[in-house]
Every structure is written in structure tokens, then in C-alpha cells.
Amino acid sequence: MDKKAVRTAVSELYDALGGSILTEQDDIKQEYIGLRLLDAPLVGFGAAGDPLFEKYKAPGVIGPWHMSPAEWLPGAQTVISFFFPVSETIRRANAKKKDIAALSWAYARIEGQQFLGRFTKVFAKRLEEAGAAVCIPQSDPRWQGVEAGKGITGYPEINEATFGSRWSERHAAYVCGLGTFGLSKGLITEKGMAGRFASVITTLRFEPDARQYEGVYDYCIHCNACVRRCPVNAIDPEKGKDHVICHPFIEYTREVFKPRYGCGLCQTGVPCEAANPLRRI
User: Fold this and answer.
1) Rounded distance between C-alpha atoms, residue 136 and residue 124, angstroms
2) C-alpha angle 159-164-168 in degrees, rounded to nearest 5
3) How many Cβ atoms sit within 10 Å of the Cβ of residue 53?
4) CA distance 116 to 17
5) Phi, psi (5° rounding) for residue 236?
């Protein structure tokens, strides 16, 4: 199996799983039945031994609780990262909002994530059939969220301003050549920022994709559109997003969209919504 075969398999699997379309089986409002949540993904390959994974353990980057690919899967050779763009219909709906997300965005956040779970599980099975060992960090019981000092004990670096997990999908995607960060701390890919990430770690070896960037923020044009879009002023033009400000608002959306949640206003109605903004300059 080579990278071309993997990308073909990914495309076929996306179609076989229904293309992330809401159905009558989902607990949703009738008018949203048939809505496509996520488009077909970009795929990136990174070396499990890339030194960036160790750098992510540094305080102020992610932290020492972040697990390297080899810690997730002994013998790991490759990280395969996926970026599923949010569909244009949902992006347009969210871009029109100013104070709180469109309901369809919450569907993309929750039902979309459920689709990613199904997708990665079936994809991992296909790699296993090819003789590989595979780990899906997001589905692994060792995955833990870090929220305002809660979740992982034994790390004094965790404080009230700490948010994250033992595996960052965005940082994995950066290693795999899919894009660079923006002020809102999302990752800007060639298909923009509005979307969902997933990844698998495998013992199969693939040549890493070349990163078409050197800096963490190379694709961000610092237009400050995301700063203006944030309903709670959580994004500073110099410092970027402050999760201590953002998080309570996300919790508020849980009340509004119960049992779902989400915002994404900083990812829509901005130049990096659906494209790399550098390509437009």
C-alpha cells in the first residue's frame, strides 16, 4: 500500500460511509435531514519520529502530558492526518451569525465528530488488514482532555489557563504538512480553517509529505477578521485566542444547543474560512 492507494481508499471510504450526511436516524430537526456536514478530506502524512512531536512536550507549546506517536503505539512509523472541511451550506449559515453559531454548525461539531469516529475506525481496520498495527488517539482510553487544571494529575504545569489533551489533532496536522496556525489557534489548510481534524498512527511506513512552510503562522495574513468575529473578544491581535475567555462561552452554547455545542464564528466569514488566504494575495 502506497500513499496514492491510501488517498484512494480514503475517498472511497468517505463515499461508502454516506459522505457525512444527516439522516432520519439522527436526532435532528426535520429540515436538516439530508444536510451534508463535512466534505471529503485532505490527507497528510508525517513521520512518527518527527522531532516536532518531542518539541510539543515543552511548556508553553503544549506540555509534557502530550504523548508522542511512539508512546501511543510502540513501533509507530507514520501519522496520517485528515482535515474534513465543513460543508459550504453550513459555513454560509455560520458566517451570517454574529452573536452565536448557527444550529447547523453544532450538528457539524457533534454529528460530524461522530462521523469522524466511524471513519477512522473503518480506515484503521483496513490498515490492520494490510498487516499494520494502528492507534486512533481520539478513540483511545488514554486520551484525556485538560480543562482549567482538570483531567490529568501529576503535572504542575497545568493551571487555570491550560486547555488541551494528550494528543493535538491540529499539531499533528501541522507535522503532516496540512497547514499552519492562525490567530484563532485553528489550523489553516489549503481548504481553509473551518473543519474537523482526525488522525491515525500506524506501524506502516510512508514517506512524509513535505511541509510547504517553515513558520507556525505562515498562512495567517493577520487581517484580524477573526478578532472582529469573536462574540466575546477572546482573540487578541498580538496574543491570539485566550481559551480562558473562550471556554465559558462554549459552555454557554451547550445550554443553547443541548445536547450539542459549538461556535466557529472565528472560522467563518473570514479569509481563511475555506482557502489558504495567501493564495488570494
Assistant:
1) 8
2) 150
3) 23
4) 10
5) -100, 135
- What separation in angstroms does the CA of 82 have from each of 150, 174, 179, 252? 28, 11, 11, 29
Q: What residue has cell string 510547504? A: 212
Which residue is it, cell 439522527?
26
pLDDT at residue 148 in the model: 45
Angle at 187 between CA 183 and CA 191, to 5 degrees: 120
Q: How far is CA 234 from the centre of its chain?
A: 19
Write out the DSSP string of 69-107. Answer: HHHHSTT--EEEEEEEEBPHHHHHHHHT-SSS--HHHHH
**Residue spans per domain, the chain:** 3-280
Model confidence band, residue 146 (pLDDT cutoffs 50, 70, 90): low
3-state secondary structure of 150: strand
Least confident window among 76-80, 93-97, 245-249: 245-249
Confirm if 21 and 35 have CB atoms less than 8 A apart: yes
Q: Rounded to an integer, what distance in angstroms lies between the CA atom of residue 234 and that of residue 246?
A: 6
Round to whole Å and give the CA distance between 113 and 170.
15
What is the pTM assigned to this prediction? 0.93
- Cα angle 116, 117, 123 (rounded to 5 degrees) comes to 85
Nearest to residue 206, comparing CAs of 138, 101, 97, 130? 130
Strand partners, 146: 164
> Average pLDDT in the 207-230 region?
96
pLDDT at 198 over 80: yes
The rounded distance, in Å, linking the Cα atoms of 169 and 175 is: 10
- In the three-class reduction of DSSP (H, G, I as helix; E, B as strand; rest coil), residue 7 is classed as helix
Residue 252, C-beta contacts closer than 8 angstroms, at least 6 positions apart: none
